[in-house]
Write a structure and sequence with these properties.
The chain is mainly α. It contains six helices and three strands. It has helices spanning about 1-10, 55-65, 80-125, 130-175, 180-195, 200-210; strands at about 25-30, 35-40, 45-50. Strands 1-2-3 form a three-stranded antiparallel beta sheet, with no helix packed on it. This is BBS2 protein.
Length: about 210
């Protein structure tokens, strides 16, 4: 059946013939010129060697569909991709910290503006034009700082959303390496690891499909 899947799924110069012993087929991916090798052992174990996690997921889903596999647990490792993901997770933490700091600063500025506005109006009612002018000039500066902080916060929030999107895509990719219940379990466990901020557990789940040792 694996040989039938190979012959139907790939444009081959000639059909692959069934072999009783271990054998492998290798291709060059047109997506990124990387190599894809599929190794089949007599006992039924199949290894897919590629640096492209999306391609690996496509191969597994195609194979599982052709062979009518409803449950498939997989061990997978993509060191380069996981290292990039680790950097993204660090950025997510940084963006969260910046957002909290900016929120606190903006709240402090808002309180200062309210207080300054009351002082400016008091000075106006008392006819103290000098203090009124001083307070309104300070209000202008505070308001300008608040607007600048808001712009920084918006940019930070946009970058945070982009990084969170990348993390979610990584979790979905890890799920596509499995079929059936293992797929849903991996996605759920990865999200739990993200919520608990446990990155080591996250990468273990992506690699072996479970958080347990």
């Amino acid at each position: 059946k694996i040989v039938m899947w190979l012959n139907q799924s790939f444009l081959l110069p000639e059909d692959v013939e069934f072999q009783s012993g271990p054998f492998q087929v290798c291709f060059t991916s047109l997506r990124n010129a990387g190599q894809l090798c599929i190794k089949i052992k007599p006992g039924g174990e199949i290894s897919i060697n590629t640096d492209d996690i999306d391609l690996a997921g496509d191969i597994i889903q195609s194979m599982a569909s052709f062979l009518a596999i409803e449950y498939l647990q997989v061990e997978a490792d993509f060191p380069t991709y996981f290292e990039e993901l680790r950097k993204v997770l660090v950025k997510v933490d940084e963006h969260h910290s910046v957002n909290q700091r900016l929120t606190a600063d903006m709240a402090e500025h808002s309180n200062l503006i309210r207080s300054m506005l009351v002082q400016a109006e008091d000075a106006r009612l008392l006819g103290d034009l000098k203090n009124m002018k001083t307070r309104y000039m300070e209000l202008y500066d505070l308001n300008r700082d608040l607007i600048n902080q808001y712009k920084i916060r918006c940019n930070n929030h946009t970058e945070l959303l982009n990084n969170l999107k990348a993390v979610n895509q990584a979790i979905q990719r890890a799920g596509r390496l499995r079929v059936g219940k293992p797929k849903t379990q991996v996605i759920s466990a990865c999200r739990d690891a993200i919520r608990s901020n446990n990155f080591n557990t996250l990468f273990r789940i992506m690699r072996v499909g479970t958080a347990s040792s």
